[in-house]
C-alpha cells in the first residue's frame, strides 16, 4: 500500500489548525515535525528564521501577542506547482478580525520547506 503525499492545501490546513491555533507547545511541536521540513524557512515582514525549533519559538511568540485569538482561513485555496496560498484572518472566536494576511508555502517532498506570511495593508 502506497502512502499518499499530502497536498499543499492539506498542509496549509493542518498548519493553521495544528500549529497556529494549537496552544499546547508539545502538540504544536509534533505537528511542526509532521508538516514542515527540518530546515524550514519562515519569513514575514519582521524576520526570517530557519529550522523547526526556530519556527516553534516564533509561533509561540506570535500566539503570546494575541492570547485566545484564532486563525480562520479566508477565501479559496490557491496554488500552482509546488506553491500553495491561503488567506486568513486573526481575531477572537466569533468576533471581528484584528489582522489578516496571506500564507504562501513551498512544498518539497510532501512537507512545507518555505513559508512566507504577507500581512494585509
TrEMBL record:
The protein's matches in Gene3D superfamilies, at most eight in alphabetical order, are given as: 3.10.450.50
Q: Which organism is it from?
A: Klenkia terrae
Please state every residue range assigned to the domain named SnoaL-like: 30-114
Query: Which positions make up the signal peptide?
Result: none
Q: Which Pfam families did the record assign? A: SnoaL_2 (PF12680)
What this protein is called in its record is Nuclear transport factor 2 family protein
